[in-house]
Design a protein that fits this description.
- The chain is mainly beta.
- It is built from three helices and 45 strands.
- A hairpin with a 2-residue loop joins β18 and β19.
């Protein structure tokens, strides 16, 4: 038998640390915490609640400052490459300069170019600018500085050559997306600031981040969600807001413009999700617990096609995949994940429900890691766990072991009378705490229970074993594997956002309270005659 300790010893050869595992078939899915991003260069990155992944890079906005940190991703590490300011507001004082604190000289630049250079830098806070030449420097020279005006003040320039520019304010970003639609292999990095209806735009050229200005006229209140859609008609950005409106944006002349809007929701829009193509539509969570499905109409209008009702509290996140004939996943503050199956008429019907989380579900995504090319559903929650599910399963998704004419004494938690065996299996399988149950095929001769009664339990057979049923009416059933959930990653805080970085890297990046974790997904193949145990902590003999 391979224990977690033994597997940790094996995997330590690669410098890894085992976090948690879950069973899937004859393999053990492993979540390896390979890197916790070093945030000491600016601790405000440690408190961010969103990020973007593009071309092997992580873009993480600081939560308390107008900065973006850029990390490069390797298979077992992530390295800070640079920091860049997002938006800078300036004050200018003519005929003054900041003496003795110049760090970097730039020649041949306009004032606007010097502003961009300072704003892009993670350290620059001000600069002096000379529009005319002197014996010491040419015209159009600036000196970037990591300092601002102090109590000692500025120095007056009697020659009227120098002007002083200082960053006075900026916006920290709360959402990020990268659109790869600009010419010359450049990309458009877009973000929205907290408590703001504006979308800030940046040209991404390799590692260079250049502000392009603000895209407005989409919303009148702060934006809550941004999603990128790569449709056959082109890339679009979909946003939802406190103003109970959805805006669909396209790129025109290298910037975002509003293409269409969806209005009339009863509550703020907390989640939006595009389908695989514009012709199929998009999903919106803007009516508290209900989800609406919209299809394109004439002149960039959108028409409501369906309302989906299964949750009883606020829907926080959505995810769609065209696999399995089309599946939509929705997560809500009721702690549940609901799967919706696409029908032949392009409507969606309730399919399945996951009960594994114990707090609000905040993040969902369908991913296809390299572990067998099996598409999985990734979820994150305020309960501090990230989970992976296999959605390509039958409705009854637990593997069972039956022991005839035995029962588990003294550990029964819930009794269900007049209940068929398959119903007892379903109740136990769908309960996060249930791992076994006793089932009475016949009524007790003393009248204690009728036939078809089951007792659900949070315990399994222990060292003392099961009790022999001399009457021959009881069977013991134990869950050997839950076929939907294949991995659980426990985090020490609420999960704010997650992204999947596909093979060959195969990483999960998890943003949580108090830190940013990069986890690698691996598998351990079971030897012949062995299988994962239910908890996914070790391999055991099938005998």
């Amino acid at each position: 038998m391979w224990t977690v300790t033994e597997m940790r010893r094996i995997l330590s050869l690669a410098g890894l640390a085992l976090v948690l595992a879950g069973p899937t078939g004859d393999r053990l899915v492993i979540g390896e915490e390979v890197h916790e991003l070093e945030m000491r260069s600016n601790e405000s990155f440690d408190r961010g609640d969103t990020f973007a992944v593009y071309d092997g890079l992580l873009f993480i906005p600081a939560k308390t400052e107008p900065l973006i940190g850029v990390w490069s991703l390797g298979e077992f590490h992530a390295d800070l490459v640079k920091t860049a300011k997002t938006q800078c507001k300036w004050t200018a004082i003519q005929n003054y300069y900041l003496p003795g604190n110049n760090r970097e000289e730039r020649q041949g630049l306009s004032v606007a170019e010097c502003k961009n250079a300072c704003c892009e830098s993670g350290w620059c806070k001000s600069f002096d600018y000379a529009a005319t030449s002197t014996s010491e420097h040419p015209a159009n020279t600036c000196w970037l500085s990591g300092f601002r005006e102090t109590a000692a003040g500025l120095t007056w320039d009697t020659s009227s050559v120098y002007d002083y520019y200082e960053i006075v304010d900026g916006e920290e970003l709360s959402h990020l997306e990268v659109m790869s639609s600009l010419p010359g292999n450049d990309a458009l990095l877009v973000g929205t600031a907290k408590h703001s209806e504006n979308i800030y735009q940046y040209r991404l050229q390799g590692l260079s981040i250049t502000p392009l200005g603000i895209a407005g006229s989409g919303h009148t209140k702060p934006i809550l969600v941004m999603r990128l859609a790569s449709w056959s008609s082109g890339e679009v950005l979909i946003t939802g807001s406190y103003d109970q409106t959805v805006a669909v944006w396209k790129i025109a002349s290298n910037e975002l413009v509003v293409e269409g809007k969806i209005q009339g929701f009863e509550f703020p829009v907390w989640a939006v999700e595009p389908s695989s193509d514009r012709s199929l539509g998009l999903f919106v969570a803007g009516d508290q617990a209900n989800i609406s499905f919209w299809k394109p109409g004439a002149s960039n209008a959108w028409e409501k096609s369906q309302v989906m009702i299964q949750h009883f509290r606020l829907v926080r996140c959505l995810a769609y995949t065209s696999s399995h004939g089309g599946l939509l996943a929705s997560g809500a503050e009721d702690t549940e994940i609901v799967l919706w199956k696409q029908q032949a008429d392009n409507t969606f019907k309730f399919y399945y429900r996951f009960f594994d989380h114990t707090d609000a579900v905040t993040s969902l995504a369908f991913i296809t890691p390299a572990i067998g090319n099996l598409e999985l559903l990734l979820s994150g929650s305020d309960d501090g766990t990230a989970m992976l599910y296999n959605t390509d399963t039958d409705e009854l998704s637990c593997a069972w072991q039956r022991v005839t004419n035995y029962y588990l004494p003294g550990n029964n938690r819930y009794e269900f009378q007049n209940t068929a065996l398959n119903e007892c299996k379903q109740y136990c399988c769908e309960s996060s705490w249930c791992v076994s149950f006793d089932f009475a095929r016949e009524a007790d001769s003393g009248g204690q229970h009728p036939a078809n009664t089951c007792w659900l339990s949070s315990y399994v057979e222990g060292p003392s074993g099961l009790a022999w049923d001399s009457a021959g009416i009881y069977d013991y059933w134990e869950i050997k594997k839950k076929g939907t959930r294949v991995l659980t990653l426990e985090q020490p805080g609420k999960i704010d956002d997650m992204k999947y970085i596909p093979a060959p890297v195969d990483l999960l990046a998890v943003e949580r309270d108090g830190g940013f974790i990069v986890t690698k997904i691996l598998t351990v193949t079971c030897q012949d005659g062995w299988m994962p145990n239910y908890a996914g902590t070790h391999l055991r003999s099938e005998e």
